[in-house]
Design brief:
445 residues; mainly alpha
């Protein structure tokens, strides 16, 4: 290890936290950007119906792909804790077992989803015009879902391996590959949703195979894939730890369905398309918070395993301050850039542009608390407390949002749908801090 590289056992200053998490933040931003590129090319080269169709299917696609996040965050928390206990051999066996199990899980779930995609599309509310686009796009992505899951998995383990820059470089390579293929397949060859789906699969393959090869060979980190049997006990512990991630994806998928149905009722196809832009652009900002939480999780898990309570307090305190500053900055930037962002996707349709830019200005205020809420959930996952993390995540992404999106439009019309996210973040912030206070003595943070 190079002299200036940060280790999990180091005392974290603001400078070290930002330096270590910067690559993981950039990694998540790049991951979000190459998803956005799909939307940009489809919206501008395939039209509004195709764009609405891929947005309608995205919750179902993310639901299955979220299993990779579950194994990645939950497994990384377990491996990090084991490394903190100074048991490297056991940590590698757990790591390898998680990777092998994820491959099997990806193959099984993808096969099941492929069969039922037409029915899923209809359940999600696909119209007769949208259905062919929905089925074509989702089936192609489902075939490559194994790469998506492994990519999500390895992103977390690069942090435990103290190699955040490797995760970033892999994401950059994957993202640039996706953008180039989108330009060629969708822009130049006019392959529409099929071209965008093929570009995404190819990019995900790059993001999955590079780290798989890296960890399969001898490398300078403590982590390496080794020959081992799949230990169900550790798999279940990892799944339990990462419960909040998969429940968050399930919740987001359900919320996406409810949003789309509400938007179809209040604004028709334009509402669904506007929501798609909101999710694409919004995820760039949210990706910063997710990247920070991924980057800090290893420190929390390691110090929890090492019983270094003072460092846990230090990381928690500094992280909330950093997220608060990030949040305030993002609210300002997103609000000011709402029209330019909306124009990139919907400049061809004046009515859709007006709806989208208005939605984005309202949605921007949610960033004020999003980072703190994501960190709180991630903090409990890193402490190997999947239940509390899941409760916080479910409340934020399911209970509060669905309640808000069903109730607020009755009073504020279409704007009520856009207000729902900010209201949900306020309620989540309150719940998260109640749990932080309740478990302070147990974990001594």
């Amino acid at each position: 290890m190079k002299k200036n590289e940060i280790k999990l056992s180091d005392h974290m200053t603001y400078k070290k936290l930002l330096k270590f998490t910067f690559p993981s933040i950039c990694m998540m931003v790049f991951t979000s950007i190459y998803s956005i590129v799909d939307g940009f090319f489809i919206s501008n080269f395939a039209g509004k119906t195709a764009f609405a169709a891929i947005n309608l299917m995205m919750p179902a696609i993310m639901l299955v792909g979220g299993l990779g996040f579950m194994m990645g965050t939950g497994g990384a928390a377990l491996v990090g804790k084991t490394l903190g206990e100074q048991n490297v051999e056991k940590a590698n066996k757990i790591f390898s077992s998680i990777v092998y199990f994820t491959i099997i899980m990806a193959l099984v779930t993808s096969a099941i989803m492929y069969i039922f995609i037409p029915r899923i599309a209809l359940l999600l509310g696909a119209t007769e015009e949208m259905l062919p686009y929905c089925v074509k796009y989702a089936r192609i992505l489902t075939v490559g879902n194994i790469f998506f899951m492994l990519q999500n998995l390895f992103q977390n383990f690069f942090m435990i391996a103290e190699r955040p820059k490797y995760a970033f470089r892999t994401s950059v390579a994957s993202g640039l590959f996706n953008m180039a293929l989108d330009a060629i397949l969708v822009g130049a060859f006019k392959l529409g949703v099929s071209g965008a789906a093929y570009a995404t699969i190819a990019a995900e393959a790059v993001g999955a195979l590079i780290p798989f090869i890296y960890f399969s060979r001898k490398n300078p980190t403590v982590l390496r894939l080794v020959a081992t049997r799949i230990e169900i006990k550790n798999i279940l512990r990892s799944m339990f730890n990462g419960l909040s991630e998969v429940l968050s994806n399930i919740s987001s998928s359900i919320v996406g369905i409810v949003y789309n149905k509400q938007l179809l009722a209040y604004s028709g196809e334009n509402g669904v398309a506007a929501y798609g832009v909101l999710m694409y652009v919004g995820f760039i900002f949210v990706a910063i918070f997710i990247g920070y939480s991924i980057g800090t999780a290893g420190f929390v898990s390691y110090n929890y395993g090492a019983q270094n309570h003072e460092e846990l307090k230090n990381i928690k305190r500094r992280s909330f301050r950093i997220n608060a500053i990030f949040g305030l900055s993002m609210v300002t930037f997103a609000f000011l850039m709402s029209y330019p962002f909306a124009y990139i996707f919907t400049g061809y349709d004046s009515e859709l542009l007006k709806i989208t830019s208005n939605a984005m200005r309202i949605y921007a205020f949610s960033f004020l608390l999003t980072g703190c809420n994501i960190f709180t959930s991630s903090f409990f996952t890193a402490l190997n407390n999947g239940i509390i993390s899941a409760i916080i995540s479910m409340a934020r992404t399911l209970v509060f949002q669905i309640g808000a999106v069903l109730i607020l439009p009755l009073f504020f019309g279409l704007n009520g749908i856009w207000y729902a996210v900010f209201v949900s973040e306020i309620m989540s912030f309150i719940i998260g801090h109640i749990f932080l206070l309740a478990f302070r003595k147990k974990y001594n943070y």
